[in-house]
């Protein structure tokens, strides 16, 4: 059976390095959405808690309920209000038209649109939104934004920071409460010398060893041999015979395919495994073929390699890994 191995020491190392950079674990909101970016939220949660993480963000209420026993604060980022929100959680308010759909006195963080034009309220609408929050009382505890290009060296990052600073000032004028503010994501954190004193940082992929070269990869994907055979000169393997042997070659089929969340390799080009060996022919739904490399092989221990081959981003490679693939901590 295919297998995901999670390196505990690497994960702990990353969290500690990020906490040092941010100014302490109390400054972190670790993002565990989409099964902790495919790594396995429930298996990593106790490790994060033991390190000192107290605040996380997730996609949905379902994810929040799965992790509620591990963390003091959980922010739900992509919630559609239904009127029965749970007092244990904090909910993102992504659109002012949804205010009256929330259960009264629900804890919320207000999303500010600072130029990404995806979710959130614009600065010019902030006064109106605050008035609406008084009419339909919700417990406003914080505000946040998201940088569209924090990993690109252009001016947009600074423009968004300036807009969010203005939003923070407007909010503080409206209340004596101490709000929780957060705008920095993983790329933004490593772009600046110091995190603002009045902000927390939402750390996503950096936890798992990406976005900064000094961090360590946590996840390795393994496959196990289903069968082996001698592929003779001029024989082909798999659908469409996309690979034809030029010499006799001992090959094997391994138990991982596109149904397990891998992007489908169509046999064109050279998609390589962690040891540099190439996948031979087209990937099948539940398997792929390559040179016989033994009972267990590492498919990848750095998703960057597969992301480059498929002209996509690391996020897509990782989050697609099927939750049914067993995950173990090593």
TrEMBL record:
One GO-annotated biological process of the protein: D-alanine biosynthetic process
PTM sites of type N6-(pyridoxal phosphate)lysine: 33
Molecular function, one GO term: pyridoxal phosphate binding
Species per Swiss-Prot/TrEMBL record: Campylobacter cuniculorum DSM 23162 = LMG 24588
Annotated coiled-coil segments of the chain: none
Gene name tied to this protein: alr
Pfam families assigned to the protein according to its UniProt record, in alphabetical order: Ala_racemase_C (PF00842), Ala_racemase_N (PF01168)
Name of this protein: Alanine racemase
Domain Alanine racemase C-terminal: residue ranges: 218-330
Swiss-Prot/TrEMBL keywords: Isomerase, Pyridoxal phosphate
Gene Ontology, cellular component aspect: cytosol
Top-level enzyme category: isomerase
InterPro entries: Ala_racemase, Ala_racemase/Decarboxylase_C, Ala_racemase_C, Ala_racemase_N, Ala_racemase_pyridoxalP-BS, PLP-binding_barrel
Cofactor: pyridoxal 5'-phosphate
UniProt: substrate binding residues: 118, 285
Annotated Gene3D superfamilies: Alanine racemase (3.20.20.10), Lyase, Ornithine Decarboxylase, Chain A, domain 1 (2.40.37.10)
KW Isomerase (keyword) present: yes
EC number: 5.1.1.1
